[in-house]
Design a protein that fits this description.
Layout lengths: L10 H14 L3 E2 L10 E7 L16 E5 L17 H15 L8 E7 L2 H15 L2 H4 L21 H4 L18 H17 L1
Antiparallel strand pairs: 1-4, 2-3, 2-4
Helix pairs in contact: 1-3
Length: 198
Amino acid sequence: MSDRAYNPLEVNELGRNAARKLMEYPAIALPPDEQFTGGGGYTIYYRGGFETYEGMAPDDPIYVGKADLPGKRQGRAAPKRADQALYRRLAEHAGSVRYAKNLDLADFRCQWLVLDPIWIGLTEQVLISEHRPIWNVVVDGFGQHNQGRTRRNQRRSRWDPLHPGRPWANLCQDGADSTADIPVDVIRHRKEPDQEES
């Protein structure tokens, strides 16, 4: 097959189109000032002074996520106009940052794009693959919800010991990793693209 073959309707290319469109919008404060409806994909950026993330490029997202409309798992979906799934998810993330004792919400920005439900997961997948955000790939757990008392036997994520403060996370069991290992893994992750080029 020729290297110049191109199918603009290929599924992954459609996902890349949505990801490019999302990235065209300026990053604004997290959470957005105005509420809006719909589900979709989003990126979150950190521009603060936490040592582990020192030197991050301003256009390098620290986290990529998605917000599906209610009912997806049951094969039904709420009308797009009726639900604020994407806005609510960004507001939840702002709440996690507010709880963290070593982060400042003023240092965070976000971008988002309201999408038809069929493109939401694909757009998130493309963005994670292209940017390999720290909070998706190395420091997992930022996007976790409070699971309630029935899930207290689960282990604490890597995000919570690095950024302590979420009250419900303190009720989970300790994770397998030492807190000291996490920054080392972040630094190694950030060096990987350079190592691949050499």
